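Hi U.,

Before I forget, here's the chain from the pilot set. I'm dumping it here mostly so it's searchable later in email.
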Amino acid sequence: AQAAVVPQELTTVRVQDPRVQNEGSWNSYVDYKIFLHTNSKAFTAKTSCVRRRYREFVWLRRQLQKNAGLVPVPELPGKSTFFVGSTDEFIEKRRQGLQQFLEKVVQNVVLLSDSRLHLFLQSQLSVPEIEACVQGQGSQTVTEAILHYAMSNCGWVQEEESRP
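Structure:
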């Protein structure tokens, strides 16, 4: 008997399009677009696109480490305050490092079971909102938050904000 061919689960994650926010002010920072495309059952939305900054990656890694126990969490590119070269070069190096970090994370079954990772990758909730959602204090469940974002973001459904 032929064994059924199970389609291989593939998750592509890309970190791209770095943008400086609040340029020229003391609180300027760079954020990056995280594009995810997957056929994995682990993910709620098959495609997603969010923007995150380095500080949020640092938070994510700390949370993953806390929950993963003995499972090693991949490293992030360093903070490197002393950087020789252009800012663009630094941003590009960091982009590559962030992408490698996420590529390793999404291949790890233990890390994939952390709902913070899913909200980080597939919703535009802020860090405190992610925390609230994971602890069940948000207005939506993790899945609802992701689906809501997927629908609003990809323009499948144009819905009015129904806030009284």
